[in-house]
Amino acid sequence: MKISEEYPDLLKADGFDEAILGVVQRMGIQAICYDEDKVIEILIERDGMTYEEAVEYFDFNIAGAWVGESTPFFLQKMDL
Fold this sequence. Notes:
The chain has helices spanning about 5, 35-45, 50-60, and strands spanning about 20-25, 30-35, 75. By secondary structure, the chain is of the alpha+beta class. It has one domain. The mean pLDDT is about 95.
């Protein structure tokens, strides 16, 4: 199943399909959830950024963007 077929109205972060984890819900609102580390890895590999550049770009331009209720989520994995 492709997310765009199952959830056609959800907004995607262009160019980061490999980092999609799934769909999250909160109080009737759904959004696509991405793996933050994978997004940063893609920026490094695809765009030739250093780790520091990729983190700064991610924080400001991707995670910091608000495009409405279905703005994607970015999961930061942690060891518990």
